[in-house]
Design brief:
The complex is a heterodimer of chains A (about 190) and B (about 120). Chain A is mainly beta and about 190 residues long. Chain A contains three helices and twelve strands; from the N terminus they run ββββαββαββαββββ. Chain A has a six-stranded antiparallel barrel with strand order 1-2-11-10-7-12. Chain A is extended and about 70 Å long. The termini of chain A are close together. Chain B has about 120 residues and is mainly β. Chain B has a five-stranded antiparallel beta sheet, with no helix packed on it. Chain B has one helix and five strands; from the N terminus they run H-E-E-E-E-E. Chain B is globular, with a radius of gyration of 16 Å. In chain B, about 10% of the residues lie in helices and about 40% in strands. Classes of the chains: A mainly beta (about 190), B mainly beta (about 120). Chains A and B meet through strand 1 and strand 2 of A and helix 1 of B.
Chain lengths: ~190, ~120
């Protein structure tokens, strides 16, 4: 069972030992259509609207704020409000978020290469260095770690649920999830 | 301003704790629970609070005392933690700053703090 959530931010518990926690706010989700446990759902994100969105809203008789659509697995058997029962019993979830984008990044930051000395006549500072052999094999091995786009990719982590507040729709999980505060992501009930 | 959901989450945890009001310069006694193997016991730690930082459940204090042979000891404690059962304010100090890191450079009579008189 999946849920769309917004990352609120992090806090900690006062227990011994203390654990870092992340607060996630459940997005209000309407189930439009269910087919074998997989549903078309709708939720709100910003004000985007166009004729295609309006057409879908008319088709599923949704109000104007539901302007985003997605497919995910749900516990519902028919259209309506999302069923939160599996989440109330869940202990472990998987949280998928888009990581913070870091743009085109060098090998030191992207792959944790050591880099070279900064001074005393060195010219090998933060460059990648050699990327392979000579005439044989005459090519670069696949999977060679080089500079490039870092971040802005989907990352999934496993988290333990600390508490679930159904009234406010706040899920508190142990540990961190990727992405900035306010980012939308999905959580999936594992156990 | 912090997020209201984070504040609610932290307020619920802190609700059962009664922490006296104090600031930097005050002399505190902390009852710290120590676990040694199977046994747990309470040890008192007494010293001057030289800094208070953070907010909510993450709030910490630095407590400085002079140990054996005049060696300064500083320990950082979370204010709201289950391992501190009680905080007592022994003496209120008259100080003019929020962080008393200058005490580290002073010793003996210079390192005294006057008591606050109202």
């Amino acid at each position: 069972m999946e849920y769309i959530v917004e990352k609120i931010g992090m806090s900690r518990t006062i227990t011994v030992p203390s654990s870092p926690v992340t607060l996630l706010k459940l997005k209000e989700v309407k189930v439009c259509e269910v087919n074998d446990g997989v549903a078309i759902v709708s939720y709100n994100d910003g004000k985007k609207s166009n004729k295609a969105v309006e057409g879908q809203q008319k088709k599923y008789s949704l109000s104007a704020e539901f302007n985003r659509f997605a497919t995910m697995t749900v516990a519902n058997t028919e259209a309506g409000d999302l069923d939160l029962a599996p989440l109330a019993e869940a202990k472990i979830i998987k949280s998928s978020f888009i990581t913070k984008g870091r743009g085109f990044t060098g090998v030191v930051k992207r792959w944790n290469f050591g880099g070279g000395p900064g001074s005393h006549g060195h010219r090998f500072h933060r460059t990648g260095g050699s990327i392979g052999n000579a005439e044989w094999p005459g090519r670069v091995q696949k999977g060679r770690k080089m500079a490039g786009q870092h971040g802005n990719s989907l990352n999934t982590v496993k988290n333990e649920i600390i508490s679930f507040d159904a009234e406010n729709g706040v899920v508190v999980v142990k540990g961190a999830v990727s992405g900035p505060n306010g980012a939308l992501g999905r959580i999936k009930v594992v156990k | 301003m912090r997020n209201k959901y984070i504040e609610n989450f932290e307020a619920a945890q802190v609700a059962s704790k009664s922490i006296p009001e104090f600031r930097a310069g005050d002399t505190l006694r902390l009852a710290v629970t120590i676990k040694e193997g199977e046994k747990t016991r309470v040890q008192n730690y007494e010293g001057v609070c030289i800094a208070k930082r953070g907010q909510g459940t993450g709030q910490t204090i630095i407590v400085r005392k002079i140990g054996a042979n005049g060696v300064g000891i500083e320990r950082i404690f979370p204010v709201y933690t289950d391992s501190i059962s009680e905080i007592t304010v022994l003496r209120r100090g008259r100080v003019r700053r929020a962080k008393l890191f200058y005490l580290r450079d002073l010793a003996g009579k210079k390192a005294r703090i006057k008591e606050l008189r109202k």
